[in-house]
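Translate sequence into structure tokens.
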Amino acid sequence: MSPRRAEPPADAADWLPDFCSAPVFLSLLGLAAATLLIVQLAPSAAGQSTLDRVPLALLFVFAGASLVVGGLCALRRHLVAHSTPVAVTATFAVVLSGTAIGSWLIYWLDHALELGATIAAGQPWHFVLGNLFVAAIAWGVALRHFYVRGQWQRQVRAHARAQFDALQARIRPHFLFNSMNTIASLVRERPDDAERVVEDLSELFRVALRAGATTTLGDELTLVRRYVDIERLRLGDRLEYHEAIDDAPLALTMPALLLQPLVENAILHGIQKIEAGGRVDLEIRALGGRLTITIRNPVPPHHAAGLHRGSGTALENIRQRLRHHFGDAAELELERAAEYHLVRLHLPVP
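Result follows.
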């Protein structure tokens, strides 16, 4: 049995936070303030509390912590280019250097102005060494938190990616089987049309597979149109298809095979079950930083109550892929009425 190879340490870019962001900056200020309060709650050598010096000490701590975080912000681009051990060592060097310089300046300023915040500290080196000790412990706790959170986020992203790949793999065979059924229905009575469907299906799958996990809105619309052409050969004049596109950002990135299953549901569960047929409407409008895509189709009156029961899996599939790609910024709405069924997608536009 070959020995198991140890995994290399994670790069700092995998877990080191953006020190320039407001949430990280505020959390580090909060950590500095909490550390100060813990220290100040401890009784002094004389057995008395030093809480009366907390407001002034907080001012000094916030000023020093801001300088240290500013240094980390300026150096982050260099820190994330190295492995975790190098980045950790560098961040400790920045934090401890900033703490030492800031402590000396605070001690000098406090005594020059006779503010009284560092009276109990004794000699300057006592004050500086004490702050270095506390800063080292606090920064070690902060780095451990950042590392654990980064590893957890990596696992979440990996799990989400695996789910997305499974959903993507599930929807392609479903589309293929429905297309093959269309071909089978045409082979005997309309072989020429069946041959055309095979050619269109080949071209359609070339586009779909080229898109991979993601595609653009323009390519997705091309996919929908080819699919509608295939279904028109089967349904003839019973199927009408209409597009209304208003300044749509065709380069918008989106999950592949997002619109085609919705149009497929509209045809199979709506138009196909109406003897006279009907029209599928696809409307796309961009407004206020959001893209709204609406797909509407008529339904038979006696199927209105139980319409699209068989399409629940496809709709849930699309919801999950929207959530993976856009997060909470995307939304899928359903509207059922006695005469029509409507699906509306709301997507963010960068």
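Note: The chain is about 60% helix and 15% strand.
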